[in-house]
From TrEMBL:
Official protein name in the record: RWD domain-containing protein 4
Domain RWD span(s) in chain numbering: 9-110
Pfam families: RWD
Xref: PROSITE patterns: RWD (PS50908)
Source species: Schistocephalus solidus
Amino acid sequence: MDLPSPRLEERTVLESIYTPEELSISSDYTVTFHLNDPGSSESFVVHITWPKGYPFETPSIDLDAFCNRHLPQTLKEKIINDLNDLAKLNTGEPLTFTLIEHLRENAASYFEEIKEARSAQCVKSNAETTKEKPVKGPALTKSQKRRQLNRLDASGNLPRGWNWVDIVKHLRQTGSQEVENM
């Protein structure tokens, strides 16, 4: 009686642990794991490909899926490095379950990094947009522009006292008020 290969045995175990929505294993032993609901901002997909010598050779780990485009490249590299380090420590044993559980345990910190990267990017884009906006004055008609030019003196400044109040005119408008003496 033939013993099942380690890859076939691990495949059977993984399929019994995870639902088909979370995990799928193709015929060429590429494991696709969906962390959280696909399409949400707090989800990503990891592809783990088992080489022929698996589990004595480390699997290749890939995050270059279409649904991972919201992840910053630095975070992708960090996740891959973390998983590769874990895979090197456990070479010789079936480790796909270990890799998946490591992802689940550290998912909160990974998603926190995504939020921090987004907020930093928003601050940066807001700073850029505020610099680009030119300051516009009020829209004036031709006659308003002409009147404004007529008020200016030869140097382009308004004449001295242009906004002073005529005291006699002002007092006539307010009327005479009796001042009460105490």
